[in-house]
Amino acid sequence: MTTAPDIQACAKGLYINGQWRPAQGGKVIDVVDPSTEMVLASVPDATLEDASAAVEAAALAAEGWRNTAPRKRSEILRRCFELMTERAEMLATLISMENGKALRDARGEVAYAAEFFRWNAEEAVRITGEFGTAPAGTNRIIVDYQPIGICLLITPWNFPAAMATRKIAPALAAGCTVILKPASETPLTAFALAAIYEEAGVPPGVVNVITTTTPGPLTAAILADPRVRKLSFTGSTGVGRALLAEASKHVISCAMELGGNAPFIVFDDADLNAALDGAMIAKMRNAGEACTAANRIYVQSGIHDAFVAGLAGRMQALKIGAGYDAATDCGPMITKKAVDKIDRLVADAVKRGAQIICGGQIPNQRGFFYQPTVLTEVPQDADMASEEIFGPVAPVSRFETEDEVIARANDTEYGLAAYIYTGDVGRGLRVAGRVEAGMIGLNRGLVSDPAAPFGGVKQSGLGREGGQHHGIAEFMEAKYIATSF
Ligand code: NAD
């Protein structure tokens, strides 16, 4: 089988009710290869009529899908996993082309994304209820878990496959029908996956995919339809806040996976090489374009200089290039705007006293690149200590005590991931308990796993995705029946 993606096939239309169709009005969105700045393809720019057709399709399919036997739903989800795995190389290349990430990262994403189907295929047949006696002995209590209804799923560009499957797989396992609105920078992967769902046997209307340049009005219209009962969003905290306000008008259940500002803490007693390996993963997966990316690296004084030297050596060895070039370690950023933001944050940190150890420049080449960069002495009031960098910049600061670093780690509105490296597991667990984050990597630079609950505290979000029951629970409502017999 060829591993080259058929780009035009991925751009053949909106996917509504099992059909591929142009947008009403015929407008399109250009999808740009961030390595070359060239247009890869154009996808339809959906209108309010298209959004309404997607809701109609999801509503039409809802009854049949919720009544499909869990075993049958499970088998379809399992088939999605198998087809994604068979076509992993094609999907990884496609992700590299539209998102820019290095092939190694794209392959990792496809495996992670496919796993949500396998995991939820296994969970689909294990949804159970509860049965008990009221404390007063007067009656019995039955709790049944039912699909919540039509779900609007909105996803970002940084994981075009995984952020979609992390929502679609549990929603389908729970018996819901969905409308996916992927990011307009990376819609091709979402459409390639829709073709796979269709081939796997997902019935028409169960998954609908629409792309648009006007997400605000379209999502507002979808949320205003009383048949839509769930909004599951992954993206920035700013857009999340706006969507929560919109959803509140209709009291719609919301799951929010928002921005992060992960601290990466290295204590003196850490294994230096393990900490460096972990830092490279936590910082450089997707060239730093990850919500879980290490955004602030705090290193204790005794190990600080050796850590900085080791990190700079590793960062300087990274090869910049197009993601789909097999030799590339660090691909381009998603847009010029993203590069400009990184440049602004670096300039601000330097102005406030940070030192550039390596990198710190926009390379003079075509594409949206930024050099892998290490900064030291980054002050806590630098903009990058409170904003997501979302790029290959590692800001290091020195600390002395456990209490000091915990206070600095928690000095943010975010609370998604945090990383702790120490040779003392007791200390690691103690610090993990005090750091305000939904997920902790303790001597590990990677936390994501479909079998574990992914999500944040504070302004990093509401709810959890993945995990034994958490992911599916987001797409179900508990119905309580009181009875006596
Ligand atoms: P974004 O918030 O700009 O966009 C996310 C999605 O929302 C896109 O599909 C976009 O088209 C859509 N959108 C934008 N404005 C909208 C509006 N007014 N109404 C409805 N939808 C709208 O985020 P992004 O730049 O695509 O992604 C990067 C952000 O996502 C970062 O903040 C990152 O931390 C976060 N993220 C979080 C997680 C997580 O699991 N917590 C995972 C990946 C990314």
Descriptive terms for the model:
485 residues, alpha/beta, seven-stranded mixed beta sheet, six-stranded mixed beta sheet, 15 helices, 39% helix, binds nicotinamide-adenine-dinucleotide
Structural features, described:
- With 485 residues, the protein is α/β, with parallel strands linked by helices.
- It is built from 15 helices and 20 strands.
- A seven-stranded mixed β-sheet has the order 14-15-16-13-12-17-18, with helices on both faces. A six-stranded mixed β-sheet has the order 9-8-7-10-11-19, with helices on both faces. It has a three-stranded antiparallel β-sheet with strand order 5-6-20, with no helix packed on it.
- Bound molecules: nicotinamide-adenine-dinucleotide.
- Residues 154-159, 163, 181-184, 215-216, 219, 234-236, 239, 242-243, 257-260, 291, 388, 416, 456, 461 line the site of nicotinamide-adenine-dinucleotide.
Assign an overall shape.
Answer: globular
The distinct ligands, each listed once, are: nicotinamide-adenine-dinucleotide
How would a crystallographer describe the biggest sheet?
Answer: 7 strands, mixed
Q: Provide the residue-averaged pLDDT.
A: 97
**Residue windows where pLDDT falls under 50 for at least 5 positions:** none
Task: Give the DSSP E fraction (strand runs of 2 or more residues).
Answer: 15-25%
Task: Please tell me how large the radius of gyration is.
Answer: 23 Å
**Through-space gap between termini:** 61 Å
The number of strands is 20
Q: DSSP helix count?
A: 15
Numbering strands along the chain, what is their spatial order in the largest sheet? 14-15-16-13-12-17-18
The portion of residues assigned to helices is: 25-40%
Computed structural class: alpha/beta
